[in-house]
Amino acid sequence: MKLLTKTSIYYTLFLIPILLISATFFYFFTLHEVGESSENLLSDRVDVIKEYLKENDTISVYTLQENKELNIKEISIGKTIPNTFSDTLIYSTSKKVYIANKVLKTSFVLNDKNYSITVWKSTIEIYELIEVIFYTFLILIILSLLISIYINSRISKRIWQPFWLTLEQLKRFRVTNNNVGEFEKTEIIEFNELNQSVSQMMNKMIVDFNNQKKFSENASHELQTPLAIIKSKVELLLQSENLKENDVHTLLSIDDSLVRLNRINKALLLLSKIENRQFIASSIVPVNEIIKNKISLNEEFLNNKKINLVFHSNSELSFQMNPELSYVLVNNLLQNAIRHNYEGGIINIEIKDKSLLISNSGSKKSLDINKIFNRFEKESIHTNSIGLGLSICKEIAEVSNLKLAYTFENDLHIFSIKQSSIDSLK
C-alpha cells in the first residue's frame, strides 16, 4: 500500500467519527433547543390565557378554543395540576391524520373557581424543520469529508514529492555505474537532510564496492601465477625416475589439490565478475544450440558414467542475456546433473512452456532448497564438486533476469530456468 493511500485512510478513519459525533451533537442540541422553545411558547400562551380570564376577555378565549389550541374546563376546588409538558398525537380532522403536538397542562384559580387549562401546539413544522436542517448538515458533512480528503491528498502529494523523487533516484542507482547523481533541492529541511545522508551513503557504497572489486580481482589474479608455478613444479617432479611409490602418490594428491584450488579460484573470480556486473552486454541467445553444444562437449563424461541423456524440444527457446554467461549457466547445470548422477543414470533435458528443464537421477531424497544455491554447500560427498557451480548459476540467473528453481519429483532432481519479467524470445 502506498504511503499516500495509507495516510488518506488514517485521515478518513479519524475524520469520520469526529464528523459523526459533531452531527449527532448538533442534532440533539437543535432538538433540545427547539423543544425548550416550544415549552416557553406554551408557557407564554398560558400566561396570556390567564390574563384573558382575569380580564374576563371571553372573546379571545373563545377564539383560541375555536382554533382548537386551548381547552379550559372548571374543576373542583383544591385540585391542583402542576405545569406538565408532554408529547402526544392529536387527530387532525382537516388532514385526516394524527399529528405530533407539544402539550402543556396546568390549573388556575380565579374568583373561587378552579380551571384546568390545556394548551397545545403542533410540532410537525418544527420536526420538518429539524429534518431539513439534519439532512442539510449531513450533506455538508459528506461534502466537507470529500473536500478534506481531496485537499489532504493534494497537499500530501505536494509535500511528499521530494521523497518520491529521492526514492525514484534510489531505484535507478547502480553501484557499478559509479554515479550518484544530483538530488533536487527542496524547501523542506528534513528532505534535504535525507538527500544529503543518502548521497553520502551511496558515495561510500561506490568507494567500498570499487575497493572490494579491485581486491577480489587482484587476489584471484595473483593466486593464478603461484598456482601455475606449483603445478608445473609438481608435474616436473612426477617425471622424475627416482621417485618412490609413496612420493608419487603424494605428488598426485598435491596435483589434485592444485587442480581443485585452481578451479575454486577461477570460480570465485567468475562469481566476483558476475556480482560486479562485468557481464553487461546481452543479446538474444539460442538455448537449443547451447544445449546441443554442451552435450557434445560433455559426451566423454556421459559415456564414462553410462548416463542415458534425452533431449526433447518441440520449440526454439531464447533468453535475453549475456552469451558468455549463458554457456556457463547451461554447462554448470549439465555438469551438476552428470556429477551427482550414478552410473547408468538418466538425464532429461526438455524445453517446455518457454522454460528449460534439466532433470537427473541421483540421490533418492530431495535436496534442501534453502541451501543448494549457497556457496560451498555440498550435500553429496562427491570430491570433484567444489560447491560453487549452483551458486554461479544462481548469480547468473539474478543478473540475467531469469528465474532458477529446483523441485524433486519422481526421484528426479529438476532444475528449471525461465525468463522472469520478459517473455522468453522465440
TrEMBL record:
Gene Ontology molecular-function annotations: kinase activity
Residue intervals passing through the bilayer: 9-29, 132-151
Pfam families per record: HATPase_c, HisKA
UniProt domain Histidine kinase: residue ranges: 218-398
Top enzyme class: transferase
Documented EC number(s): 2.7.13.3
Top-rank taxon: Bacteria
Reaction(s) catalysed by this chain's protein: ATP + protein L-histidine = ADP + protein N-phospho-L-histidine
Keyword annotations from UniProtKB, A to Z: Kinase, Membrane, Phosphoprotein, Transferase, Transmembrane, Transmembrane helix
Protein name, entry field: histidine kinase
